Amino acid sequence: MRVHVISDVHGRADALARAGDDADALVCLGDLILFVDYDDHAKGIFADLFGAANAAEFIGLRTAGRFDEARAMSARLWATLDGDPREHIERNVHAQYEALFAAMPVPAYLTYGNVDLPRLWTDHVRPGQRVLDGEVAEIGGLRFGFVGGGLKTPYRTPHEISDEEYAAKVEAVGAVDVLCCHIPPAVPELLYDVVARRFERGSEATLEAIRRTQPRYALFGHVHNPLRARTRIGRTECVNVGHFRAKGVPYVLEW
């Protein structure tokens, strides 16, 4: 059995169309849309609406941890548009989702990332694309558990949830062979991004579940440039499957 696993697609419909080549199934760990691009400031919804220069300034403020200033700047820009800002965001998100779900090969098993808008997925998911969150699917005789979303941060990305809600989903999944999450377990070397020079948030609940149930694999993304891409916790191989937008190639899981 050969399964390809991806995360942090962020708009790469071209590479997504090839992500399932020679695989029995595709697993996607979320973050499909591209709101801002930290590498190319001219890309993403924010730049499409307000230009690359404004996107660069916005990214600079967030990178420096000046979140209040970034939110104030964003609010000023949104106020220049006609109508409700949410309508502009959702129109652009719908356009990205339409292209991404159309490109995504099947069968595919998906969960949400922290920048996704789950309520919009139902308009675009196609037959053969199964969305799971706090749920388990059997793939090739192994039990795959899925936990989507991220935990609350100063970035206030769209799909951040409370620690309690996240822990409840981890508990609902229970003991599995492969634990699939968008964010890593709370292991410092898995959480530090060497380019952004900051720690992302990881899940204590996921870490505790890994220690208790010892799945074969714990797979995740979220941290685009991790200090360490993999580590072992007991018998569990913990793997960051890679920043798909940048690399365009999946992580391969075979058994």
From TrEMBL:
Pfam families: Metallophos. InterPro entries: Calcineurin-like_PHP, Metallo-depent_PP-like, UPF0046_metallophosphoest. It comes from the Bacteria. Residues 1-226 form the Calcineurin-like phosphoesterase domain. Transmembrane segments: none annotated. One of its GO terms (biological process) is cell wall modification. PANTHER family: CALCINEURIN-LIKE PHOSPHOESTERASE DOMAIN-CONTAINING PROTEIN, METALLOPHOSPHOESTERASE. This is Predicted phosphoesterase. The lineage of its organism: Bacteria, Bacillati, Actinomycetota, Actinomycetes, Streptosporangiales.
